[in-house]
């Protein structure tokens, strides 16, 4: 007689048992989980809706659900289903035992052969995404996991773009990514090709795997951006000449001449020992009606990510919200931008206090508002504007910034 299945009383939706905490972010926690019916190990990403203070973040979540449900590849973390309650969203995903590739490379650089193996798996996954009109846009070792067999798994599609976000000029315009891995054309704000941006990030990852350090790095963010913009990096002496040549094509600052995925597959360094992965039945092409079940998500209709000039996603320790601050790129001169800030400050009767050449603090008359604004020259043509709330509540900052100061800075083709 078959044993009666026992479902723990506290099982999530009567289906998943939550275990130890695997990781923690600004608005999400990832737990180890177990399907109580099958015993299968899963990872459950729990998002607290109350902590999602920005429409951008909600767009990221909706898009991540939409994208991950369309991907079925041996080197991409699989999304099984999405569940939701009034206060939380649960992503039930494949559990990847080996942890982050970042943790492994942090202990020491990889051999050229091992670097090539992981890079081949990365390109297989990225090429698959591109063929389905999906661009990751935040590829870095922290978003690459390893399974128990030492194979790579791409995760975290929160910043991904899909082809329906491409404007009539054929380019993407949302600024995002992680500073050290971001492609130079993203900094110029002229629009960019999502596939070429991913190739650049793959190049940075390959460099890190074999060198053990970043090709573009500096404690000063602006200095690092200038290095990226100019493509200034040096390969260590232990790299083979073939790998150095290959990296120079991956980290070509000109997206028009940068190597493509198709060309990567033909490169002599890349091709060594490369085998296109054979899809098991579970990774066969998913038909529409076989996509992961999206449960209780009526309030989360999947919509495209609204493009904008908020650069928050480009910077560490920022979650895309303007409640505490924002950074964006402008084509206006620093002098012109500071002039506009001072005009608004005087019009709004805010006290102005100069901090440095291109920096100012704006303070409310009754001390209920404080905003620090700094402008940095990125290149001859571009400046970065940074605004931070220093005093007062988030709502006052948001209203003053969004309705008064930010619109005034839309100058010089910004």
Automatic annotation (TrEMBL):
<dbReference type="InterPro" id="IPR017441">
    <property type="entry name" value="Protein_kinase_ATP_BS"/>
</dbReference>
<dbReference type="GO" id="GO:0004674">
    <property type="term" value="F:protein serine/threonine kinase activity"/>
</dbReference>
<dbReference type="GO" id="GO:0106310">
    <property type="term" value="F:protein serine kinase activity"/>
</dbReference>
<dbReference type="InterPro" id="IPR004041">
    <property type="entry name" value="NAF_dom"/>
</dbReference>
<keyword id="KW-0067">ATP-binding</keyword>
<keyword id="KW-0418">Kinase</keyword>
<dbReference type="Pfam" id="PF03822">
    <property type="entry name" value="NAF"/>
</dbReference>
<dbReference type="GO" id="GO:0005524">
    <property type="term" value="F:ATP binding"/>
</dbReference>
<dbReference type="InterPro" id="IPR018451">
    <property type="entry name" value="NAF/FISL_domain"/>
</dbReference>
<feature type="binding site">
    <location>
        <position position="45"/>
    </location>
    <ligand>
        <name>ATP</name>
    </ligand>
</feature>
<keyword id="KW-0547">Nucleotide-binding</keyword>
<comment type="similarity">
    <text>Belongs to the protein kinase superfamily. CAMK Ser/Thr protein kinase family. SNF1 subfamily.</text>
</comment>
<protein>
    <recommendedName>
        <fullName>non-specific serine/threonine protein kinase</fullName>
        <ecNumber>2.7.11.1</ecNumber>
    </recommendedName>
</protein>
<dbReference type="Pfam" id="PF00069">
    <property type="entry name" value="Pkinase"/>
</dbReference>
<dbReference type="InterPro" id="IPR011009">
    <property type="entry name" value="Kinase-like_dom_sf"/>
</dbReference>
<dbReference type="InterPro" id="IPR008271">
    <property type="entry name" value="Ser/Thr_kinase_AS"/>
</dbReference>
<keyword id="KW-0464">Manganese</keyword>
<feature type="domain" description="NAF">
    <location>
        <begin position="292"/>
        <end position="316"/>
    </location>
</feature>
<dbReference type="GO" id="GO:0007165">
    <property type="term" value="P:signal transduction"/>
</dbReference>
<dbReference type="InterPro" id="IPR000719">
    <property type="entry name" value="Prot_kinase_dom"/>
</dbReference>
<keyword id="KW-0808">Transferase</keyword>
<keyword id="KW-0723">Serine/threonine-protein kinase</keyword>
<feature type="domain" description="Protein kinase">
    <location>
        <begin position="16"/>
        <end position="270"/>
    </location>
</feature>
